[in-house]
Amino acid sequence: MGFDGLVNFVHDLAPQNRVIEEVLREEVKMFPPQALRELIANALIHQDFLATGASVMIEMYDDRVEISNPGIPFIKVERFIDEYRSRNEQLADIMRRFGICEEKGSGIDKVISAAEKFQLPAPDFRVGEIRTTSILFAHQDFGKMSQSDRIRAFYQHCCLLYVDNQRMSNQTLRNRFCLNESKNNTVSQVIGATKEAGLIKLDESESKSTRYARYLPFWA
């Protein structure tokens, strides 16, 4: 089948979302193809080949897709966006040469960016005792997201902007979730919760007013 064939196969299995704009009705796939491609490549590259009875798994559900590999990452999930360390560097180098995956450290950035472009909840990265799992979720309105989902999305948004030499603000978050200015206080409350969780901090070089404040990842 080959790698591209695998990605296309998984993409074709994904449920469809119905998008209606004016009088046009369009069926689009639930997950961004670039995000699927990067996460599948990531699972192949970072799998632990010494683990017995385990392999890369792709599980499709009505509201999400889970892609997992045997092995525990060398870095914390909070640093997936800007850091990189491969378990199988020779395999990673070959896959980069063939254009299968992105340059070092940029794959997860592309996944987060694609999720934001498709107005999806933030991807979730979970580490178990022997496996690492990446989860892409189907579209969900901001009002229906749990507090933990919102905090994860705010943190990832902050990291994504920071590595692109930009800063997160109340307005960039409202743009990310297509929220109008009436949701300003709601967004500010979640910003506060994300700060309390120790994931973001105020950019001291910018305005400290609540309305114009800018934020950085905790590690910046």
Helices and strands in order, then pairings?
Blueprint: H1 2-13, E1 16-21, E2 24-29, H2 33-46, E3 57-60, E4 64-70, H3 89-97, H4 107-117, E5 124-127, E6 131-137, H5 147-163, H6 170-176, H7 184-196, E7 200-202, E8 215-217
Antiparallel strand pairs: 1-2, 3-4, 4-6, 5-6, 7-8
Helix pairs in contact: 1-2, 2-4, 5-7, 6-7
Describe the structure.
It holds the Pfam family HATPase_c_4. InterPro entries: RecG_C_sf (IPR038475). This protein is of the alpha+beta class and 220 residues long. Helix 2 runs antiparallel to helix 4, helix 5 crosses helix 7 and helix 6 crosses helix 7. The protein folds into two domains: 135 residues, Heat Shock Protein 90, CATH 3.30.565; 69 residues, Arc Repressor Mutant, subunit A (Orthogonal Bundle). Helices cover 38% and strands 18% of the residues.
**CATH class group of the largest domain:** Alpha Beta
User: Helical percent range?
Assistant: 25-40%
How many distinct beta strands? 8
Distance between the termini: 42 Å
InterPro entries: RecG_C_sf
Features:
220 residues, Heat Shock Protein 90, Arc Repressor Mutant, subunit A, four-stranded antiparallel sheet, two-stranded antiparallel ribbon, 7 helices, RecG_C_sf
